Amino acid sequence: MSGRFPLFGLALYRRRRMLVALVLGMVVFETLIVVIADTLSPAQLFAGGGRTPPSAFRAFSGSSGDVSIASYPGLLGAGLTHPFWIAIQLTAVGALTAAAVAADVESGTIELLMARPVSRNRLLAERTAAVAAASVLLNLAATSTVAIGVALSPQLHRAVPVSGVFAAGLLGCAFTLCLTGPALAVSAAGRRRSQVVGVTIAFGAVGFALNFVALAWSKAAPLRFLSPFHYYTPGDALAHGAVPWLSAGVLAAVGLAGVAAAFGLLARRDLAP
What we know:
Number of helices: 15
């Protein structure tokens, strides 16, 4: 290990091929969404025959209720809440948080790390920074692609301000922080990387399903407050050109609480495999 922040650099270097593939996949996917939005009217895709899309479709456009998926902000927002987008984010968060602590405990290499003059806090801090850097990189790739598409298309630019695209990107960073915190806590307490990956996937998948059910079934509406996807509303950000700070604050608070819990758990646990 060399350099000022060796664990940070090593965490990203070991997964450089995965990160490059994820970034390229994100760029290609968002380019496809922009091309579809620029070529076909959202109303033709989702509101044929004058029918209004069901309210549950708001789960796919990333809206709290103001933005329909049968609109340019809604369609572009769908590209930022699509299962493919979610899968890319979960892959990065799951892989890097699993490697933060649990993977080294599972393989027995944690004792070698601790034998060096590296504190537990520094170990977790640098690897947390690596997860954050990967998340920002992926959100920047998606945001930049959509922003370029909006800037180059007059009809998209009339409906979606560029400031809204970057607001959606900032909200995306808050969302990935919300996923990262609990995953890091599990990694700090767990002994298997599969535990961390499983919790990360479950958190994302169950959260999306919960939000969808809450929007589709009025009796289950209160459950939407338990889902991170209720607060992650890129469609609203795209339409209004501003960050919904309350929602971003909730997402960030959950993530930071998870990170704080991870440091507390790591400080007290036995690192023997």
